[in-house]
């Protein structure tokens, strides 16, 4: 009976520390949300550190291949609409194709923040995995690279054809501004 009390007493500080760490981590994650450029530059730095690590040890190509497949999967989710028009055609609902159809904004299946967070976590986990020599499986890396390239091209081709077929663009360049029509009297000549 006494052993149970000491286990819970020693687990309480660990649980408190974990809870505090989780709250602080979430606080800083929330504060980073509006800083899009800085977040992606940080992810680029993490990716470069990973690439330098793989290049310096000349190994862990299977981990890199798995990372590439995972990032490709995330990219597909990022580029896809939340409600797939192909499936909605069967239900009767679809994206607007004419000016008289109802406007539906493009909503991603995987939002940008979750896309960034998942990619960053993936690079960090892959980096940590490069320190375990048992995961360095000897493979002929050009074959993996070619296979990933073919997979990327075929997947992106299918995704782009899907975008063209259902007329959606998953990117916005900025807020559209409408200037309105100029009136005939604003040509500079004034009548009195």
Note the topology.
Blueprint: H1 2-32, H2 36-57, H3 61-79, H4 85-91, H5 112-129, H6 141-166
Helix pairs in contact: 2-5, 3-5, 3-6
What does this structure look like?
With about 190 residues, the protein is mainly α. About 65% of the residues lie in helices and about 0% in strands. It has 6 helices and no strands. The chain has helices at about 1-30, 35-55, 60-80, 85-90, 110-130, 140-165. Helix 2 (about 35-55) runs parallel beside helix 5, helix 3 (about 60-80) packs antiparallel against helix 5 and helix 3 runs parallel beside helix 6 (about 140-165).
List its salient traits.
single chain, 192 residues, mainly alpha, 64% helix, extended, transmembrane, Protein RER1
How many beta-strand runs?
0
Q: N-to-C terminal Cα separation, in Å? A: 102 Å
- Poorly predicted spans: none
How many individual helices?
Answer: 6
Overall average residue pLDDT: 82
Structural class from helices and strands?
mainly alpha
The secondary-structure element order is: HHHHHH
Strand fraction: under 5%
Give a quick account of the main beta sheet: strands, pairing sense, barrel closure: none
Put the structure in a nutshell:
This protein has six helices and no strands.
């Amino acid at each position: 009976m006494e052993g149970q009390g000491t286990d819970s007493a020693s687990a309480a500080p660990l649980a408190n520390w974990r809870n505090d760490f989780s709250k602080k981590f979430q606080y800083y994650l929330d504060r980073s949300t509006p800083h899009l450029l800085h977040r992606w530059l940080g992810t680029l730095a993490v990716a470069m550190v990973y690439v330098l690590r793989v290049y310096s040890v000349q190994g862990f190509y299977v981990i890199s291949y798995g990372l590439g497949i995972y990032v490709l999967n995330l990219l597909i989710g990022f580029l896809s609409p939340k409600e797939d028009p192909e499936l909605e055609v069967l239900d009767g609902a679809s994206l607007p194709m004419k000016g008289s159809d109802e406007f539906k904004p493009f909503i991603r299946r995987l939002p940008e923040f979750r896309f960034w967070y998942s990619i960053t976590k993936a690079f960090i986990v892959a980096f940590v995995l490069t320190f375990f020599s048992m995961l360095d499986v000897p493979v002929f890396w050009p074959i993996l690279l070619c296979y990933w390239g073919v997979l990327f091209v075929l997947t992106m081709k299918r995704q782009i054809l899907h975008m063209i077929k259902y007329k959606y663009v998953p990117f916005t360049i900025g807020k559209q501004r409408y200037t309105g029509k100029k009136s005939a009297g604003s040509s500079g000549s004034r009548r009195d």
